[in-house]
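I am hoping you can look over what I have pasted underneath with an eye to the fold:
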Amino acid sequence: MMDQAQSLRQLVSSKDLKPAAGGEATARIITVCSGKGGVGKSNFTLNFALALKAMGKRVLLFDADIGMANIDVLMGVTAKYNLYHLLKREADIGQIIQLGPNSLQYIAGGSGMDELFSLTDSDLEYFTDQIALMADKMDYILFDTGAGLSKETMKFITSADDCLVVTTPEPTAITDAYALMKVVHNSYPETAFRLIVNQAGDEREATMTSDKIRMAARRFLQLEVSFLGYISSDPHVVQAVKRQTPFSLLFPNSSAAKDVQRLAVRYINSGDAQAAKPQGIKGFINKWLRRNK
């Protein structure tokens, strides 16, 4: 029987997943972040990725949380390889990309993330070429970053095509989400943010939460923040976490699952997401390198 690594290596060279004509990079890079922990950022990222995939999009999920990588835990899977093995040239891209539920392709985080920020020129070139083998055949690459704003998270946010900020109606989450945007905006004012309110009691609470952040950003930062939407507070989410299965798969008819589906549709159809041409993974890394200088 064909093992997972062999299947992925074949997928890399698959004619059905060839890059756009002329070799142009098509992948849109999305960084998902939050001002604080405990707002359901990783859970959102996972289910959002699955929603995009269910719509026929080619998706790669990258767990970029250096300290608390847990995407594989939420899926109930164990990754044999992670980024570390690629950076040490102990495995190729076809081996470190793992398959999650519904054949979602992902790269496990944790070990190896520290090394990513201190590569030699030779190692960086190898890493970029390897990632590009798969990334140029994707529609979306999602980076799930750590909570808060570390210097590493800052680089992911300011190098991506889009930044999705996840918050909840809790006052501390609202304050920290605004603080994150403020710090990033002060250093890189060209960065655009899209807000998602998680664990909302209803649409009214979600709108009020969004308005507080957006009005503060407009007044004090002269920054326009778009509101992508919200996800309802839903007990099915907690049940799914305990069972280590994405809630959108375990409870597809739950309010949270339907909300994520709606967010994915809105994101794809939004003018903001369609306006700017995606830079692709090489463009992302080149921009990311400039952030290191």
Summary: The chain has one domain: 26-291. The two ends are 47 Å apart (CA to CA).
